[in-house]
Amino acid sequence: MSESLTTIFNALPQLFEGDLQRQWNRTTFLLGQLQARTGVSEGKGRNIAFDVEFTGATAQTVAEGSDVPATEYATDIDVPAFAPWATYRSSFQITETEIDAAFTSGPQGMPQQIKDIFGARVLSAGAAIASQIENDSLVGTGVDSFGNPTIVGVYGGGLGGGVYLGINPATYSEWNALSVSNGGVTRALTPQLLDTVDSNIFLGASIPWNLVMTSAGVANKYAGIFQGTATNPSQLPLIRMNDQAGSPVYGLGVPPNSSGQFDSLIYKGRQVIRNRLNPSGKLALLNTDKMMVKYLPRTMSGKDIAFLTMLGIEGSSGGMAPIQATGMPMRVAELGKTGDSIKVTMMIRCQLAFTRRNAHGLLVDISEQ
Question: Which of 101, 145, 256, 263 sits at 20 to 30 Å (Cα–Cα) from 29?
Answer without folding.
Answer: 145
